[in-house]
Amino acid sequence: QVQLVESGGGLVQAGGSLRLSCAASGRIFGWYSMGWFRQAPGKEREFVAAISWIGGSTHCADSVKDRFTISRDAAKNTLYLQMNSLKPEDTAVYYCARSNVPTPQAMAVAVDYWGQGTQVTVSS
């Protein structure tokens, strides 16, 4: 089993920044990717960004690639999402996820563990 716990969400004004964290524990060894998804009210969950845990290669959705940066600290088993220039349409619950494949581009179709989510609200 793998446990994923997100933190860092909150309320921010448009144009502001937030950094989300995801602490991983449990059987986390192996060749895999981790990433972030989000779900806004009334919408389906969508992919945001992913990173290969060993190699560090990344893949981001077009809607955030110029504003969000995904990173990880392997020593701390922690995943991050730095979100800059936030917009009201970024408002959503953000979920940390693990995929059992090493390719971040495949993250959206290969998630095997989810965190509980953290709310991000961007006011206009």
List the helices and strands and how they pair.
Blueprint: E1 2-7, E2 10-13, E3 18-26, E4 33-39, E5 46-52, E6 58-60, E7 68-73, E8 78-83, E9 92-99, E10 111-114, E11 118-123
Parallel strand pairs: 2-11
Antiparallel strand pairs: 1-3, 3-8, 4-5, 4-9, 5-6, 7-8, 9-10, 9-11
- What sort of overall outline do the alpha carbons produce when their principal axes are compared? globular
Largest sheet: 7 strands, mixed
How many helices in DSSP terms?
0
Low-confidence stretches: none
Helical coverage, percent range: under 10%
Strand % is: over 45%
Averaged pLDDT: 94
Q: Count of DSSP E strands? A: 11
Q: TL;DR?
A:
The chain has 124 residues and is mainly β.
Written account of the structure:
With 124 residues, the protein is mainly β. The chain has strands at residues 2-7, 10-13, 18-26, 33-39, 46-52, 58-60, 68-73, 78-83, 92-99, 111-114, 118-123. Strands 2, 4, 5, 6, 9, 10 and 11 form a 7-stranded mixed sheet that branches. The protein starts with a strand and ends with a strand.
Entry keywords:
single chain; 11 strands; seven-stranded mixed β-sheet; four-stranded antiparallel β-sheet
